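Tokens in:
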């Protein structure tokens, strides 16, 4: 179960809030590392992009891009992410709601404890 300050959530709660645009992280992770859900979409394969370079026969074709989880790392690098068994069983997940563009600079940081 999660508390009113979003601490101690389980993975089921985290997945639900990720689906509505929130971000989440484990308490043991660096404060500036978090997960985001990348929604599925359709993309057009471009000649000068990695997929087009690897599979030139697909250039110009539209392909399905599956939903997945990405981790935004402290150095700004974004990578695909899959949970470990420890992540799945953890109860130390914290999450913050999605923040609308142009948040109030006086508002408290949702990651602050």
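Residues out:
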């Amino acid at each position: 179960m999660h508390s009113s300050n979003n601490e101690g959530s389980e993975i089921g709660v985290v997945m639900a809030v990720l689906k509505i645009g929130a971000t989440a992280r484990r308490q043991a992770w660096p404060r500036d590392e978090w997960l985001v859900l990348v929604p599925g979409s359709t993309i057009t394969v471009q000649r000068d992009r990695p997929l087009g370079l690897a599979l030139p026969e697909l250039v110009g074709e539209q392909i399905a891009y599956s939903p997945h989880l990405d981790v935004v790392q402290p150095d700004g690098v974004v990578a695909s992410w899959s949970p470990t068994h420890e992540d799945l069983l953890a109860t130390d997940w914290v999450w913050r709601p999605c923040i609308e563009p142009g948040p109030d600079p006086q508002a408290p940081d949702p990651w602050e404890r």
